Model the fold of this input.
Amino acid sequence: MTATRPATASSAPCSVLLLAGGRGARMGGRDKGLMPWQGKPLIAHVQATVRPFSDDLIVSCNRNANRYRAYADQLVEDPQKDFPGPLAGVLAGLAVARHPWILVLACDAPKIDAALIEAMLAARTAPGRPVMVQQAGQWQPMFSLIPKTLLANLQHAWSQGERSLLRALLQHRPQALACASDDPRLSNFNTPERLE
Done:
């Protein structure tokens, strides 16, 4: 078992979900999480930062499972095969998460740091309310902390046709964690130009 940070009142154990299941349209169809940056795949940078926070690291991927297995305790994939978006990955992750909270992050945000994760964990104010980063007033659902108790509600939203992770989470009055508009930790390396 991987050693994790000691739990405190503000940072009880959580599962971690790294979303790497997209079609990579802005990458010309290439698998974003496996694109190299500074000598390692993007997901390796994110995984190295979050690994100390959880003994339940889940990667949502819809291809290249053999390569992603090295970065995860569990792998999940979308039941649909048409890359339906991050909400599908979150639902799959919540369904297998071993802890009451799941930290959701994109695989293409390699500059995230431990301080931001600790701030998200400390921002929890109520058992049923998610935490979401708000950057200069704009919600960032790919930086979220979601209670597992919302699984049934989110599944219901999906069954009613909702496909937006942001809209689904906004129904549950997320606690905002404010970040500056130029916070480099929130940078998404989702195009070849950004990787340069």
